[in-house]
Amino acid sequence: xxxxAARTSPRKRASNGAARRTDADEIGLDALVGHAGYxxxxxxxxxxxxxxxxLGNVDIRPTQYSVLTVIGANPGLSQMAVAKRLGIERARLVxxxxxxxQRKLVKRIKSKEDRRSHALHLTAQGATALAKFKRLAAEHxxxxxxxxxxxxxxxxxRILAGFT
Amino acid sequence: xxxxAARTSPRKRASNGAARRTDADEIGLDALVGHAGYxxxxxxxxxxxxxxxxLGNVDIRPTQYSVLTVIGANPGLSQMAVAKRLGIERARLVxxxxxxxQRKLVKRIKSKEDRRSHALHLTAQGATALAKFKRLAAEHxxxxxxxxxxxxxxxxxRILAGFT
DNA sequence: TATTGTTATACTCTATAACTATA
DNA sequence: TATAGTTATAGAGTATAACAATA
Lengths: 164, 164
Known about the structure:
The structure is a homodimer. By secondary structure, chain A is mainly alpha-helical. Chain A contains 7 helices and 2 strands; from the N terminus they run αααααββαα. In chain A, strand 1 and strand 2 form a beta hairpin. The first copy, chain A, has a two-stranded antiparallel ribbon. Chain A has helices at 2-7, 36-54, 62-73, 79-86, 90-102, 124-148, 150-159; strands at 106-110, 118-122. The first copy, chain A, has a domain at 60-163: Arc Repressor Mutant, subunit A. At the A-B interface, helix 2, helix 3, helix 4, helix 6 and helix 7 of A face helix 2, helix 3, helix 4, helix 6 and helix 7 of B. Chain B binds a DNA duplex through residues 61, 63, 78-80, 88-94, 108, 114-118.
């Protein structure tokens, strides 16, 4: 939206005596208003904060939830496969799994086919816990729906389906 | 979308002899498919990477661009006001401004009204540079449009307008 | 007392590189 | 030689707390 940027003239806000108006509503964003990335980033921050809050009691963050969900749906995957599928660095997944394994939610099993790799599985406890996490995540999703509206949420999922 | 989650059955992927299929396309996401946050996060990563790449020659990242744009549109703002408006921690803005000031794009001017605060302005060089950054950011925005489509991008901006 | 800018610390996340053990 | 998992490091980004100067 370059047109918007070009049309917006700076509101003078001199430091030499003019009234300071610093309310968020009063401060223009200029070109940022036309940038999808800015809106998406702000929304993503809101949505993650709601997720973290809604799953606060069970201490599960979005990335942990995504790892558990993919392992639950695809038992036996290697770490590389999970990392690639979710766009996580394999080095980072090591620490994520260390934490989840310490909490007895996930287990690494040495593969007999390829002894370099680990087959990932949920523990029985992990499967039970994940069911609970999914209920809480669904509650979070209803918060999203309340925030932006049912129709808008569905449009959003449709528009961004290609990025999953 | 709990229904989706409940309906999806895990595809067995035993580590004891079954063929390993680890292509990203073949690995189900289960409940993640119904979560707006997951799609939004993946899209946000794509969009920031494209922004960073498109503005790579001028070495400007999304947060730096947002700070410069807001200062350009509202000269004389305090650091607190910029931080609040953009949702950046004031402690973090200090470092961002240190960097932008070293690059002679921004200057801090001691306020005469409130000697605790700094009025922020673009330098002449900063204003010229920002005009160039905006042209590159518009190019990035056209990449977004190419990626998701003109209509979808406009719908996205409309849906998320409340988060800016 | 409260606020602005600053410094400092810790933790998350991203991006690399290098090492080991296997293939 | 290439790959899977691991370890380590550095840079963003987020979240706090505390301090000096000023209100």
